[in-house]
Amino acid sequence: MKNMISRRNFVRSSALVGAALAASREGFALAHEGPSADETAPIRLGVASYTFRNFSRAQLIGFLKQLNVLELNAKDVKDHLPMDPQEEAATLADYAAAGIKLHAAGTIYFAKDEDADIQSKFEYCKRAGIGVIVAGDPAPETLPRIEKFVKEYDIRIAIHNHGPEDKLWHSPLDVLKAVKGMDPRIGCCIDVGHTVRAGTDVVQAIREAGQRLFNVHMKDLSNFQSKESQVVVGDGMIPVRKMFEALIAMKYKGFVDLEYEIHADDPMPGVSSSFAYMRGVLAGMGYTRQS
Q: Which of 58, 106, 114, 290 would suit a FRET pair with 5, their CA atoms being 20 to 30 Å apart?
């Protein structure tokens, strides 16, 4: 355990030193003029907007620019991505002006097994140009109706597992069993924290999901039995490097979206450290950032 902690601390320290050197060479503002720092990496890092659930869209945009992360998994929380078409249009204009790209939306809940309700969610994402819906707790009997709209809209459904408390989807393995034989655009959003709490090996789950893995919600835990043990990525027990190795080996084309659920009123210190650690892991694997 001491060796693991030492290695994590070394990676974090190296990443922070590298970030400081980059800032001194180029100046902070210059980082915002080009593509996101992670755009050309083999692991594409993004942010789940739920991380900033206590902050407005304008504040969210400011935080993303500070992080130099311009890829967003947006949720209808605060004013991050409203369901109302006119409000949504104004929101999309704000993101476009800031250079922020939306690659997923969620979690979105499908509480009704009705065409009108399900189609409204697909229309919502179509208007935003979003190709992945992160779905929370769709009932198994609803999946055939959802599949119909997946085919019509060519938008993927990534069912989000919520751990031991989830009545339906404890683990990504439960999702894979349910969608086997369905359209290949129906698959998983692996929440790594909930996955390990369900007693599932997260690296093995990534491998088993394969081409049905469309999104990853990233977090870290110091205790795999405790939902309340979330910490900065790199300070816990999640095997980040092994996860990244598995994703790279399978040529994963989706995003790893940081969902930092603690310190909701002041998340930026932990969010910044989490990105520094993940980027440091990638640098240690030989993948350098390109700002």
A: 290
**What's the first-to-final CA gap in the chain, in angstroms?**
34
Tokens of 270: 């932990």
User: Look-up: residue for tokens 């009932």?
Assistant: 139
pLDDT in tens, 53-77: 999 999 999 999 999 999 999 999 9
Alpha helix (H) residue ranges in the chain: 2-26, 57-67, 85-98, 115-128, 143-153, 172-179, 192-197, 202-209, 240-249, 268-284
Query: Kind of pairing, strands 213-218 and 220-221?
Result: unpaired
| Residues 75-95: b if buried by 16+ CB within 10 A, e if exposed | bbebebbbeeeeebeebbeeb
- What is the C-alpha separation between 106 and 33, in angstroms, rounded? 28
Sole residue written with tokens 């993927």: 156
pTM, rounded to two decimals: 0.87
DSSP letters along 125-146, please?
HHHHT--EEEEE---GGGHHHH
pLDDT tens-digit readout, 239-290 = 999 999 999 999 999 999 999 999 999 999 999 999 999 999 999 999 875 4
